[in-house]
Amino acid sequence: MPEESTTTSKPKKRWFSVDRLSALKAFVVVIACLLGLRLFNLQVLSYTEYKALADGEHVFFQKLYPKRGNIYLRERGSEQSDQPYLLSVAGERLFPAVTDRQYQMLTANPRIISDPQGMANSLASILQVDTNELKDKLSKPDVPYIILKKKLTDEQVDQIKALNLTGLYFSEETYRFYPENELGGQIFGYVSNADKNKGKYGLEGYYNDILKGREGSLKFETDVVGALIPIGEKHVTEAVDGSDLVLTIDRVVQTTACTKLKAWVKQHGADGGSVVIMNPQTGAIVAMCSTPDFDPSEYGKVPLSTLPNPAIFTPYEPGSIFKPITVSIGIDLGKVSPDTTYNDTGELVFGKYTIRNSDRKAHGIQTMTDVLDKSLNTGTAFISKLVGLEDFRKYLKSYGFGAPTGIELDSEVGGNIASLDEKPEIYLATASFGQGISMTPLQITSAFSTIANGGVMMQPYIVDEVIKPDGTKVKTEPKEACRVKDKDGKCSGRVISTRTAALTGGMMVTVVEKGHGKQAAVKHYYVAGKTGTAEVARADGRGYQSGVTIGSFAGFAPVNNPRFAMLVKIDHPRDVTWAESSAAPLFGDLAKFLLTYYEVPYDYQEDVPPIHQKNK
């Protein structure tokens, strides 16, 4: 019998297994996720970039630039002037001290210039450039565009046009224009063309956001050849011009002060100087100038050290002009009166240190009025011991020393009274006559304005009003300064009492009439003031420079109803040593001008002041 087969057939192998199906699904999910991520990246994360690429093909976009605001100076008086002006109220006129101006720029296309040498010969003297350098620029046949000269004068434009040369082109550019050249460059600051037309220093820096306005834009759809699509999307955002500033600066006073300061510094061979004039009743700055100054339209041609405004940026140890401040503190606390006496032995000893008078003399029994008349260091050191460190420091802060005034100018500093945080009594003594502490010319002027204003400090300001593009005016209202707040967070500008201010002012009149300030006197007026000859600290902080002084005179007039407070500062005069010969005469000259300019009535008619007649 045949054997039966016992073999068993194997099941057919399937390619599309369950495992492979799962893997395929996972693969599809991964691909879908990747595509989703890619779309998310394109449509969300990179939307701006790809939209810009598309817009580059189908959208025209252009920025609309605003006009930067003007800065105006005020002027009283005659209607005759060689400058364009904008009429204002109450007989005053506004002169543009800073404005925009269109200048011509000369460019060339070297590709179509056949005779570079001949063109260079014709243009070099007009453009005031080197002939060979100009030829090299014009001898580039592969370059279609090159700038030859910016900010051409009208005369240069006319001369170039008369040559009728092929390949030259003119285009307009807008630059800041400063008609009041070197009469306040450090007040105005400048606009940096290299930094996106950003204002730097002074008013241009402080008010940059207000002056520059707001950019606009023009955007519309175009077809493939760049033509406007009439029914396409169109967006126009109008540019908003900058606001104008009207300053408290009086153009006549500013011009006079700056011109006289510059001549005086030159006469004495000094390193520089500053003048600050303030209305003590309002805090308005009437004039502020320093020398060396600079032309803001040529800011790149001066040393960087010339750009900041010394009146707010460069503190110095004031020396003896600080003594009326010390006297006022002593009187206000009831520690001394004008007739209080002390025995001046010519020196006072504080530990291992000895304070001496500048004349190295002993004067015997002296009153506090004598202390100012003769500028006795021992006298103010005597007062400081009676006052004490804590009260002295508190009053200095109330006067605004050690902190910026807050005036609307860029780069202001606050000076330094940190030495009064030290315990040794010598720091208090030296501070009493203006050594070991530093302050800016504006801070000193503000302090003397406080005495002139009956003991109330007004907030210094230099912008009288802001004129917005729609014509709306925002007026600056005078206000009391707030230097130190009480425990309830309240403060006022009251620094010393009205009585203290009157007594201190009267004592300063005797300085001008009988003391070291005689050359600051103005006939028929009572002028209050004080001289100060300050030493200059060494750069390494160890002692003072030999033979280097700063002469200052600070004061106000007339004493009973002051129209101005003023500081004159002369840096390192070479031909004189003392402030009574450097700063005081210029103060007197400017004071006489101001009293005449403001038509201030005489205090007395006699040639000799009644104060002297009573003493006879």
Task: Please tell me about this protein's structure.
This protein is of the alpha+beta class and 616 residues long. It has 3 domains: 58-100 and 176-243, Penicillin-binding protein 2a (Domain 2); 110-166, no CATH class; 248-297 and 307-461 and 480-615, 3-Layer(aba) Sandwich (Beta-lactamase), CATH 3.40.710.10. The strands form 6 sheets. Strands 2, 3, 4, 5, 6, 11, 18 and 19 form an 8-stranded mixed beta sheet that branches. It is globular, with a radius of gyration of 36 Å. The relative contact order is 0.10. Residues 1-8 have low confidence and may be disordered.
What keyword list fits this structure?
five-stranded antiparallel beta sheet, Beta-lactamase, 616 residues, 3 domains, Penicillin-binding protein 2a (Domain 2), single chain, alpha+beta
Brief rundown of the structure:
The protein has 616 residues and is of the alpha+beta class.
What count of structural domains?
3
CATH superfamily of the largest domain: DD-peptidase/beta-lactamase superfamily
Share of residues in helices: 25-40%
How confident overall, as mean pLDDT? 87
Beta-sheet strand percentage?
Answer: 15-25%
Number of helices: 19
* CATH topology description of the largest domain: Beta-lactamase
Outline type:
globular
Q: Class of the largest domain in CATH?
A: Alpha Beta
Specify the structural class.
alpha+beta
Specify the biggest β-sheet: 8 strands, mixed
Distance between the termini: 173 Å
Q: At CATH's second level, what is the architecture of the largest domain?
A: 3-Layer(aba) Sandwich
**Model regions low in confidence, pLDDT < 50 over at least 5 residues:** 1-8
Number of strands: 22
Radius of gyration: 36 Å
